[in-house]
């Protein structure tokens, strides 16, 4: 029996997914959650084999919960099921090491088969998601985004704050005002983060911030 935690903030969606999963005698939903924090607590209580998480939930979102669960429960199979197949979500999920990225619009048997495949050590992607990854990888953009997300881990929290505002196109004076820093201190942070990331200009920093998900 494969034990599953199901996290989605919409009761009707949870009910529908429960119906799909209950159609297979090898699957059992042992816990439900309406947000990411409840999902973390549910994993601690019920010790499922699989955590099936929606992305957009109040409080802690599914991707943040997935990152936390991958770090704290390496044996747990963490899967995303969502209506959103945007590149930034896919990149972040893959960077977190999830075992599946499925769409709610997919075939129910795709979900059941995906859970079983993940339990056997596979990484399962919805066909539409796989197509997007192949398309983006062909241009190298997903690779750049994953590298950017890795690179920002070398920054201090303050440097990440500054990078996000550089990505928003703000000058040093405005960044200083928002972060309650002297303009000279902002310049020092900008210089430091450029050096750490191997960048040479604010334009490059703004692009980096977008790829890392710090700026729209």
Automatic annotation (TrEMBL):
InterPro entries: CheY-like_superfamily, NreC/VraR/RcsB-like_REC, Sig_transdc_resp-reg_C-effctor, Sig_transdc_resp-reg_receiver, Tscrpt_reg_LuxR_C, WalR-like. Residues 3-119 form the Response regulatory domain. One of its GO terms (biological process) is phosphorelay signal transduction system. SUPFAM superfamilies: C-terminal effector domain of the bipartite response regulators, CheY-like. Pfam families: GerE (PF00196), Response_reg (PF00072). Residues 148-213 form the HTH luxR-type domain. It comes from Actinoplanes derwentensis. SMART domains: HTH_LUXR, REC. The modification 4-aspartylphosphate is found at residue 54. Keywords: DNA-binding, Phosphoprotein, Transcription, Transcription regulation. This is DNA-binding response regulator, NarL/FixJ family, contains REC and HTH domains. GO terms for molecular function: DNA binding.
